[in-house]
Each structure stands twice: as C-alpha cells, then as structure tokens.
Amino acid sequence: MNSNIYSMRTVLYVALGLCMLGCGGGGGGSGSDGNCVQGELGCPCYPNLTCNDPLFVCSASKTCVLPGGDDAAQEELDADPADPAGGAGGGGGPTLDGSSDKGGFAGAGGTSASDAKPSTGGVPGIDASAGGVPGTGGVHGLGGGVSTGGRPGTGGSPTLDAGAGGAQGDAGPCSEPALNCPCATLGALNCVGHAQKGMMMCDGAKWVPNGACSGALLCDTMAGATQGTCVQPSAACANQQPGYSYCTGNSKVTCGADLLTVSGTTCPYVCTAGQCAGECVPSSVACEGKTPTSCATNGTWLHGTTCTGDCNKGVCCGTAAPTVCGTACVDLQTSLANCGACGAVCSTAGGKSCRAGVCQCAAGMTDCDGTCVSLTSSLANCGACGNACQNGRTCQTGACACPVGTMECAGTCINVLTDKNNCGACGATCATGGCYAGNCGGSNLMVNGDFSNGGTYWNVTQASTGVTYGTAGTSYCVSLPTYGLATLGWPDPLSTSLAVPIVASSGYTLSYSVSSSSTLYSFAAKVGHVVTPYTAVYSIATDHPDVLPTQFEHSFTPTYSDTGAGVAFTLQAYDATTVCFANVSLVRH
C-alpha cells in the first residue's frame, strides 16, 4: 500500500515537473513569501542538506527542489550521505517504426533508499514522429532494479530490449542523529543540531521534524529529561557561539555545545578576555637576582630598581643587614646564626660572639679549650692557656705571683702581717699571742673565728628565701639566690656572753679571707654591738670579694667603747652566688 502511494506521489511530482518543463514557457518563479517552512519544496534545506520529503533534493543554492530540476541538484542528490542515490533508469524503447530518434525518453534514475522498485521505461510516442514522454526513474533500495522497456507507441516498433537497471548506491554515514537518518526508538526526541531551534522525533525508522523553539529558547541535545525540548540558554551564552568563553574573577567559563550549560576552570594567574593568561599572581612579590619584582593586575612582572645589597621577598635588604640567608636579611659580620656565611652558627658557650664575621672571643680575651679567658688574670691560664697558678699565687698581668700583702715562704704565699708562723718575715714565729701588722702580740678575741669547731657560735640571718649556709672544711659558706640578701654574724644571739669589750682609743685589727663565685651587689663588714641598739663601732663597705680567696685586713681605733661587740658580714647578690669565709679574727693590740 505504501509503495503504491509513494509511486502515485512520484508520478504527481514528475507530472508537475514535466508540466513546468514542457507545457509551454512557464512564467518566472516567485520568491519566498516569508512564511517558507524549512525543508519544504522551494524552501531552504536543513543544515545536513536534507528536505522534509525524501523525493525532494537540496540544490546547489541549498533549496529543496524536485530531482532532475537542475544538474547541480541531481549531483547533490547523488552525493547525499544520508540518502544514497540509485543508478540511472533504463533507456526508453524505440518508436514503432524503428526510428532511433523517435523513441521514448529514458526513465529518470532512482532517488531514495526508502523503496526498492525498479524504474519504468519511457512512455512511447503517439506517432512515428513524436517520442513518448520519459518515464520516471524507479525508487531503489541499496541498488536500483532493472528498468523495463518502454511500451511501443502508435506506429512505433516495439522495444528491442529492456533498459539497464539502476546501479548499486553507496551507503552514507549518519555519525549523529539528523533528519532522515535512521533511528530505532519510536517517539525519541532530539535536535537538528547543536545550538539550534529545530527539534525532531523518531518515527520508528528515521528522524523527522518536530517543530522549532520559539523566542530565545534552544533545543537541548544533551541526554536526559530535557533532550529534544526547548530550554532557556545560559544568560552569558545567549546570542553567542558554542565554545564562547568569558571571565568570572580568576576563572575561565566556557559555553557548552548547546549554549545551555557552562563549564569553568580556575586560571593559575589571571583570566583576561575569556582566556587564562599571565605569568604571576597579581600583588605577589619576588626577587630576580638583586632586582625586586612585583606582579601587576594583568599577571605580568614589573621590575624595580636593582638593590645595592641583596633582595629578599621583593624588598631590598638594608645596609644594617644586607645579606639574605634563607628568608631573612642578616649581617654576616655580627649574626650568631650566620657568622661570616649563611648557616655558620657561632655558639656563645665560653663567651664567644660573632665579630667581623668570625666567631671569636671578645677583645683582650683568649680562647682556651673553647672558653674565653683573660691571660692576664686567669689562675688556670696565666699568660698562656693551661698555665695554672698554685700555692696561693694569683695571676698578675699574665704572671703568677703572690698577692699584695703576702710573701712567698717555702713556695707558698703567706700573709706575713697576720701569720704568727711568718710574722713580718718568712719563719718569724710568735711565741704567744697573734701577729698584728707583721708584729707578734695580742690574740684573737673571737672564739672559733677560724671555724675549727665548725659553725659553732656563728649565725645567719636571712632577709630572702632560698638562702642556704654551712661549713665546708675550715670555711663557712653562704649561698644566695638571685638578688638574695643575708647577714653572717658572730656570736649568735644565744651566745652573747662571748661578745668582746671594745675599748676606746685602743688599736684593733679585723682580718678575714673571703671568696665569691660571682660579683656581689654589695658587701659590708662591721664591728659593733650585738644587741639593741645595733651600734657600729667600725664599718667597712669597700671590700668586694673575687672568685679566689682574698685576705682583707683593717686596723682601726674606736672613738668610743662597747661592752659587748661582735662581727657581722652583710651580703647582697646580683645573680645566684656562694660566698665563703675563713680565718676571721679580731685582735686588740
């Protein structure tokens, strides 16, 4: 039934075409009336060069026409990948009288893959002088059928043989859905192309037109619920071409194939005119050798003035610290972490510091086994590293010698002013009493002033917490915390009966040996009343004990008397300090 209808349509269109060609000179065709429907006869073809009816072909001017309407249209038909053309139709039979130029016209070749009917031969002419009207070419499948010969015209000879059949057509590729291309799912929806308004539907065999989107809407080709329907395009992509890109901040945004969706990517530097560009992040800074650079808003480096010193993080190092080590500007002349070179650490252990780019001791100090010492005063390194002073000698201007007020006796430094075995001279012994100012006479008024009986009769009054004290051999030591304060006194409050009388205008000598592990804030020695009122008969505040034991002697003549006096030492420290006393004596002469 379908093939019969198709044949009838063919004859109709052919008759119309023949009339236009042979029924007298036709008037010129009229132009499009403005309501032309794409794909219809005389209207523009679809983008894939097809028309709504398979009998129409797309001409060289991309207009839907009847086959055979012009050679260019027929050539496009033959080359149409969506509908391969059949071979040429069979030739018309000769006229009844046998005249070869009076026979029927040859039939037209097949035009569509939708039917496999062979073309029919031409209609014979009415008489011997007029040939028959040419028959239309048969529609073919993959190859055209064999044409039958034309029926003989009146007075004409019968046809000698049948016309040749149509040639095998080449299969045309349909790489993606398009009008008249094969489809399988009845009712499936799609679009005539990307970013197009035309819609199409599958009729179970091929894609056919399904209307067009109105206004700004476009057909969606993406698989999903809206495929083949009208969708509002992305606002930024409307009226643009697929693949159009624009910038949003530092991101490049690209319109999809249908202008309905967008995809984005973050640019490493900047986005300009829809493209990622630049070589740096705006506002970042860096150094190019000794030249500071900064990144402009367009992502390009701007170069500053070359530094006289090094450049660090886009900034020139100053004259005080002109060298970059790691991420910091430093002075290689003084930096403990970069002494003379980056990474060269100068340890402060032993008193060293970075001076002139060298880790060394301070001026006037010498490095002895990693410790900075003064060779002019160090007991362990006197004049040279390792040269230790012994037997009471001290280092004086780089040489070991007995302290002032002492004399070397039998290889040992002796205080001949107070030593009763060397009183005034080596070997001069005092038979009785003590030695005062190098002369024998008098005795120590203090009981256990030499700590031969430990700490008996001695007392420590603490003004600070953390003070500790006690005897160490023949010495009595007081340990003070930082800024600690304490007083060492004789006799203790429980032994006031031991207090000594002080007689005005008499001569007395107070002597003692003392050492301190570090410099004291203050030191004072007093002779005075041991109970209220605490009246001082004699006071000394000028002695400052050193690390080594030092013998101090003070002679005085009191201007008034005291019935019960004692001796007291008041100590105050800067840092944690230990002060030790030995050979404390108070002698009357």
The proportion of strand residues reads: 25-35%
Number of helices: 2
Helix share, percent? under 10%
Uncertain spans, ≥5 residues at pLDDT below 50? 1-34, 70-171
Q: How confident is the prediction overall: mean pLDDT? A: 76
Radius of gyration: 63 Å
Can you tell me the overall shape? rod-shaped
User: Tell me about the biggest sheet?
Assistant: 6 strands, antiparallel
**Number of beta-strand segments:** 40
Secondary structural class: mainly beta
Q: Separation of termini?
A: 161 Å
Topology:
Layout: H1 2-22, E1 57-58, E2 64-65, H2 71-79, E3 189-191, E4 198-202, E5 207-212, E6 218-219, E7 230-231, E8 245-248, E9 251-255, E10 262-266, E11 270-272, E12 275-277, E13 285-288, E14 291-295, E15 301-303, E16 311-312, E17 315-316, E18 323-325, E19 328-330, E20 353-355, E21 358-360, E22 366-368, E23 371-373, E24 394-396, E25 399-401, E26 407-409, E27 412-414, E28 435-436, E29 439-440, E30 459-462, E31 468-472, E32 475-480, E33 485-490, E34 500-502, E35 508-516, E36 520-529, E37 536-540, E38 550-556, E39 562-573, E40 577-588
Antiparallel strand pairs: 1-2, 3-4, 4-5, 6-7, 8-9, 9-10, 11-12, 13-14, 14-15, 16-17, 18-19, 20-21, 22-23, 24-25, 26-27, 28-29, 30-33, 31-32, 32-40, 33-39, 34-39, 35-38, 35-40, 36-37, 36-39
Task: Provide key terms for this protein.
589 residues; mainly beta; 6-stranded antiparallel β-sheet; 5-stranded antiparallel β-sheet; 40 strands; 5% helix; disordered N terminus
